[in-house]
Amino acid sequence: MTATTIRVQMAQRKDTAANWTSANPILLSGEIGYETDTKKFKIGNGSSNWNSLAYLPIPDGSGDLTITGNLEIGSTGSLTFEGSTADAFETTLAVTNPTADRTITLPDRSGTVITSGDTGTVTSTMLADGTIVNADINASAAIAGTKISPDFGSQNVTTTGLVGLGTLSPRYKISLGSTAVTSTSSPDTIDLGGTYSDTAGLNLKLRLYWDGTVAQGFGISASQMDYVAASSAAHVFYRGSSEVARFDNAGSLVYGTSTTPGADIGSGTGFYYQISTGLLYVRSNGSPVAAFNRGGNDGTLVEFKQDQTTEGTISVSGTTVSYNGAHLSRWSQLPSGAERTEILRGTVLSNIDEMCEWGDEDNDQLNRMKVSDVEGDKNVSGVFQAWDDDDDTYTNDFYCAMTGDFIIRIGAGVTVERGDLLMSAGDGTAKPQDDDIIRSKTIAKVTSTNVSCTYEDGSYCVPCVLMAC
């Protein structure tokens, strides 16, 4: 049979995209529908409406391939890119055989895809803050200090090792500079800036101890430097391992001894200033306890004050040392160590044959006294000055003024003149002697008739120079 060739032209169904969408027909299985304005086409399956069918990929006039559905490459296929130059080199996009469905999502950004074989391409702007954590950094990795610029900012820097500043061989938790002994105008320095505490003794700049509650160390407050120890701690100064001085936990100063003494500085040498009482204890060992040297001219060596008023002095003039505004007194007790009773200041006292007693303390020279009850008493010892209120153990001691400037009590109605020698009147007061001879009964000489005080019984006191010894 002779073959017959029939030449035909096939025209596919076509319309605009809008008309296709509006009509939404069902294409026959294998029937092609073409959009004249978008140059896209669909192939029918005999059951689905137009709007439910997917477009088939087809290059447009510029060579672009548009796919609105999924592009699946078979197990033996790959995606190859020629590049801008048609040559023997291509780039192939391949995948490792997946063991589950995988998805690669490209971000909503323009940029370049970087491969594991690339170097020097990843920049800091590609990394989100906080995405690199400690576990991402190899344990052997090291970051040079010169790469940290300009500083650590506000973050904390922690380490369990040693920190060296100005040294490559730190010796302690923080080591500053080397161990080389060097004289220099710019030694290793820690600069803590110009801030200072608004409250003295608080907000330390350098903490040497801190347990979460108690701080000890050094601080700066307005116009002063603060050395701060806990309220129960002491400031102790050493030379080598030997203590030389301390401020104890009461604030008292101890020098030359390692313990805070009581009324006795103890053995050795040193001094102790008790801040609670203002008392100063000084001890030497075979040498003078204190030396006072006034240079340039004569005058006062020591001033004695009471409530800011000078009551007496020790002065020097040439080779003479003078005790000014003072008198000699001593301790005593009443007969049998009797309890305190009222004795008026300036009352004439008389010696008795009893010795004062202070527990086990030795006493070779201080005898007891009584108010003089004999006229012209030759056993006069002096006049009553005051009870001793500084001893908390022996509270019945009193001071007897014996020699020097003081006052003396004169009986009511008795008149004295300046220059009179006085003796006991036998009732605790004094009266003038009948002559101007200093005798064993002479107790004082009147230096002024100015009455310093008058008592309820009419007796009164005048200034005198005591001569009881």
Descriptive report:
With 469 residues, the chain is mainly beta. Among the domains are: 13-66, Ribbon (Seminal Fluid Protein  PDC-109 (Domain B)); 231-286, no CATH class; 292-325, no CATH class; 327-356 and 365-467, Virus Head Decoration Protein, Chain: A (Beta Barrel), CATH 2.40.300. 1% of the residues lie in helices and 32% in strands. The chain contains 1 helix and 30 strands. It has one helix at residues 17-23; strands at 13-15, 32-35, 41-43, 58-59, 65-66, 79-81, 91-93, 163-165, 174-176, 206-210, 215-221, 224-228, 235-239, 242-247, 253-255, 270-274, 279-283, 299-306, 309-317, 320-324, 327-332, 348-355, 367-371, 380-387, 398-410, 421-424, 430-432, 444-446, 453-454, 460-467. The longest helix is centred in the first third of the chain and has 7 residues, at 17-23. The mean pLDDT is 86.
